[in-house]
């Protein structure tokens, strides 16, 4: 753990010495690359040999390079299975190739991203909660991992968008723009319940998939896709493209209505309705293969050969701005996610919150965020945790009604750098991540610090924002 912490801090120092960065890392394919370039030359009529100018020229010529580093520290002073701290992070680097500019393939582009995760999350080793205190903790295997590797084709004046290749389902569904202005993983980049219990693939652990989005009007869309479920992807380096270990597919669908231009006279908003079905088998939360309580008698979990299904609804709206076209404003968001089967850890999640961008005129890019999520623990998971606690020498049942809060401030000291100190509090925390303990967890108080660096923004490259790095 010490070496990974030092690596994260050292990387941050190296990055900070170079300049400034941007908002949360974005793993979704970039828009038209020509639109992403700002300032191709430093001096009129002259050649600028600096790295920044070279990368800008490459972007103009169809090769947009990007790199991001997110480092998140978290510790809990009370509650959870135990108390402690951890430092985790992810570095990713990749390219977006404009095939129209490069080869004349109109509307075509190719996207690739390589990832390097480090550290174990606080919930993995210490608190044991279903929710994560660090949203960037996605893969416990600390090696280079080929993630996004995909071809994209836009048709019908960009109304139809097709993407095929090695994808992460979470890059496309259940995302709101405000949801990754937080360190905890209750809703970044999509609600935790969907992220963990739907069969969605999560970058860097990409799987084969195809995604289709169609815009019948400028402000509405319908989106669906088919994505491989492959439990071996996370432990691999991402270069094994075989489907021999696939266990099923996940099919999500989403309808959305939005207005995303923050500088428009009318305030931005988004409304999204969606659902999913996953055909891959999964584990029973209570019974072992002998049909007995796994908590009391141990053994392997019984396999459930049934579809996973769920639905969700979410939205956000800017309800206040100091004037038309201002980037400052108050954004309210909320949503509900519901599993339709009972063989899960959580049955329901309801989340809501606010993000104030530009809390003062002197700090127009800073943010102030607050969020709350309600989780409903399933009866089977509650019984399993109770029995496992008895077997470990303890007693008591987890309260099935869990509430998770976060309050933070997003400081933008310079272009491309975001520093987010935060505090988190969980009422009635579960211990689904560390079930074999006599401890019945008390309410949890955690504190954290997230540092996000976008190296492209440091040198003046610009691309449209999306969700967080999920």
Automatic annotation (TrEMBL):
Top-level taxon of origin: Bacteria
Matches recorded under Gene3D superfamilies: Carbohydrate-selective porin OprB (2.40.160.180)
InterPro entries documented for this protein: Carb-sel_porin_OprB, OprB_Porin, OprB_sf
Signal peptide feature range: 1-22
Pfam families in the cross-refs: OprB
Assigned keywords, A-Z: Signal
Gene Ontology BP annotations: carbohydrate transport
This protein's record includes keyword Ligase: no
GO cellular component, one term: membrane
Any GO molecular function: porin activity
Family: Belongs to the OprB family.
Record's protein name: Carbohydrate porin
Biological source species: Stenotrophomonas tumulicola
